[in-house]
Amino acid sequence: MTVIKQGVTIYYMQITETTVDQLINYANNAKIHNDKQVDMLAASIKEFGFNNPILIDDKNTIIAGHGRLMAAKKLSLDKVPTIKLSHLSDAQRKAYILADNRLAEVETSWDDDLVSLELKALQELNFDIDLTGFDDDDFITPDFNAGTEDEQGKLDELDPQYIDCPHCGKEFDLREQA
Question: Same domain, yes or no, for 95 and 12?
Fold first, then answer.
């Protein structure tokens, strides 16, 4: 079923189970999945379930989900959830294979404070943070007291600040220049 809302075609798709052996890797898939990522995907699927179906065309060629298929094989799964994207033209299919991976990387960033907050909350719940793709020290900073302004000034006095002259190569201590 398709519906057009505000000029955008929305395709209501059905999730079906497809045997792993029936799925065909797209020969020109440009995204590389290393062993570490596949291990992380497998751990994620094991913990959370297979929540993100593999997208395929009418010939069972993978459009999106090559890494998830590798993880499924690592977990010895016989069947995986799939969605057929029959509405894409050949050009759209090729473009979507690239776009699906690339658009997630373009001009994105993390709100470090919110990530840290969420990771700390997960730690308090004794949840394995590695399953999120983050490490313990990615954003979680130890609680510390920065000290008073006077104490900070004393630390600055102890910390030499060296620069190299681009012309003569000599090293200078900026504290001596003040």
Answer: yes
